[in-house]
Amino acid sequence: MREQLLRRWIANTGAQRVLQSILWIAAAIIVAAPMGLMVVYSFVSEFPITGPVSLTLEHYTELFANTNLLVDITRNTLLYTSGTTIVALVLGTLLAVTVAKYFPDSKIQLLILLPYGIPSVAALTGWIILLGDSGLITVALTSALGLESAPYSIYSIPGMVWVEGLHTAPIAYLLVLPAVKSLPGAMEEASFTAGASRLRTFREIILPLIFPSILSTAIFVFARTLATVATPSVLGVPRQIFTFGSAIPNLFLAGTSFSYSKALSFSVLVTVVTAAPVLYYMRLTANANGRYSTITGEETGAGTQYVTTTGRRGLSYLALVAFVCVAGVLPFAAVVWDSVYAGYALGFETTQFTLTHYTGLITGEAEGISNMVRVFVNTLSVGIIVPTTAMILGLLIAYAHQSIDLPTGGAVSFLASVTLAVPGIAKGLGFLVAFIRTPLYGTLGILLLGLHGQALPIAMRYASPALTRIGADNINASLVAGDNVLGTFKRIVLPLVSDDFVAGWMHIFVSVVRNIPIAILLYATGSEVLSVKMLLVLQAGYFKTASSLAVVISVLSLVPYMLLQYMRLSTDSGL
């Protein structure tokens, strides 16, 4: 053994230094520099720095001195986030129980994930068309009830909760479903034998057993929603309702109140607030085999599939289909219809159907957009380059830490994963201040770097389990045979983790092409991407252009997203 280790070290010393250099440079550029400088510059008297540097707490004291603003933003954020979490959790749990007990092998599971496959900004456009002040449902409802105005407004916190809650419910469903499936069938059967109804069994047996999973899911959804940008920016900002996510780009970095320094100090505060639940969630999931795993006693199994009547099964099926239609099909159908209908009120006159809104995108004649070809090329460039390099980098980090145990591999792995706790809007601001004085500023390059901050934690989620599964035998054999660590990675590791690479690549692709929090702060004229351009035209009120862009970005996101979910379901069910 000592001889093998000695041969391995001597054969790979040079390559190990190269690998360590690559990882530390990447970690410094993608994680340490933007996050560190965001914190440091929040204590600088003026940014961008134009003179001698002096450290101060004035930005924090000014922020806390403006009590009314801080209280309003915090209150709005808590109401929006708590409401979204409750809606998503209730729907997700009910969906998970229904699927696990009535349709465990059905493709209906794939349909439930459809609403999240539609980017949030596209779903927003659909709901504005349906429930906006002049929306289709709003007009029909006020007319039918004889009202002068609608009894609701989508431009409110309840409207934000409705849109984001429906959009997030599939995530809650995915996180709760494994716990429901792992429930021991004997406990439910004993409940039924004792005469308990299914509702009582759900309330007194199922819910207590899956409560740890529900708790961790609630924390994840809450943390994820705290700093979302799209929904609060479109539905809240027009009514001066600011949240943690929308305040930075729409309040601190907008208009006469523009201030990098205040935005930086607020970003640090938001990061501290959002990091707490994220890190707690990571701790819960890390202990999934202990305190927070589903309590199953001595028996483990696939759980109980309910034997039921055709009518009851049919009602359950209709309930699932109704969710998919309301949360996904309805808003998507609205944007598709609006994008091909010339009138500003949805109708059925055949002479009004046209493709001019799509041709206008290409020719530059669409309202609010001048060069769609450039936007599309930028989006594809981001969608191809970022997933590829992020997955390679994630695998290299996991390889260095888990397979060859480089001395600093663990530290780099921690840096790559811990950025999951930093909200996207704060990451975007960190990259902005880190590279504002470099040639990258104002180019597509800074956007590519910034989106790696979003992509790297996702890549690590796929890379670490992949390296654990393949083990160390093949890697050690290659190293002992004289190959260096980089050659072994290329010839041994990459072929063995190809399936994980593809799955991670598709996940990152979907994430970056629809990303708004980072992209909204890093784009410049000439480097716009679809998600940012769509948010801008939507905020400007160009709804026909927004509908056309919503269809384009939905198709671009939905196809790989649904393919990824199909791969997951096929793997889980052995199909």
Summed up, the helix count is 25
Helix percent band: over 70%
Rg, Å, rounded: 25 Å
- CATH class assignment of the largest domain: Mainly Alpha
Largest sheet: none
CATH superfamily name of the largest domain?
Answer: MetI-like
Low-confidence stretches: 1-11, 289-301
Mean of the pLDDT scores? 84
CATH architecture of the largest domain: Orthogonal Bundle
What is the name of the CATH topology of the largest domain? Answer: MetI-like fold
Inertia-based shape: globular
N→C terminal distance: 42 Å
As for the number of domains, it is 2
Query: H/E element string?
Result: HHHHHHHHHHHHHHHHHHHHHHHHH
Alpha-beta classification? mainly alpha
Percent of residues in β-strands: under 5%
The number of E-state strands comes to 0
How would you describe this protein?
With 575 residues, this protein is an all-alpha fold. It has 2 domains: 1-39 and 355-575, MetI-like fold; 56-183 and 210-296 and 309-334, MetI-like (MetI-like fold, Orthogonal Bundle). 74% of the residues lie in helices and 0% in strands. The chain contains 25 helices and no strands. Helix 11 (230-236) packs across helix 12 and helix 24 packs across helix 25 (543-573). The protein starts with a helix and ends with a helix. Residues 1-11 and 289-301 have low confidence and may be disordered.
